[in-house]
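Why NHL repeat containing protein? Reviewers of the renewal asked for a concrete example.
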Amino acid sequence: MKTPRYGSCSTNSACGCFHMVGTNDDAGVCGFLWPTCYRLVPCNSSGKPCQSNTICVRHPECDDRPLCYPVEMIDQTMCPPMQDMINSKWKQHGITAVGGNGLGNGLNQLFYPLGISVDDKKTIYIADPGNHRIIEWKYDSKNGQVIAGGNGQGNRNDQLNAPEDVIFDKNNNSLIICDRRNRRVVRWFHQNQIKQQILISDISSGGFGNG
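Here is what the prediction returned.
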């Protein structure tokens, strides 16, 4: 599909597409959109073609006649191609790493997930506030496992209430959880350690919010 006249063609928003003369608008060049118009000479003026350092394009914003456009203004240094931005580092499609099986409380489901943390083994820890739990999802697994909360909504030491963020603390082999609706931050240890430690708590009506 051809790019429309002055259409986006570069990572530089000051550049656009100029259609070349004699190509039926099927080909163009990507150049700087705001050259000084009076400096652009019409193509074939005085019976002479454009000089070697220019190219004949249509630029009706400056003149209805085709104009000799400076080649230096279509240089990729000035107008980097959009393709470079799109494909140089990232593929243009993603893959589902966690969940993707509808809203729910199954071990292959999440309920409005929020914060995540990733450890050195590529395991993802997900705050799953709608299910009042933290899920551990090992790399390339089809299902996760509940490692904190998951015992209903509440403020007991084995419960969470809409947790919204989680951090994996490698040095202490524990999770630090923002337990939003309980207005507290909790450290949750591995099974062979102490079960839970409240780091910060605000049981007043102020808290982190009224949610």
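Residues 14 and 33 are 6 Å apart (CA to CA). This is the kind of structural detail the renewal will allow us to pursue systematically.
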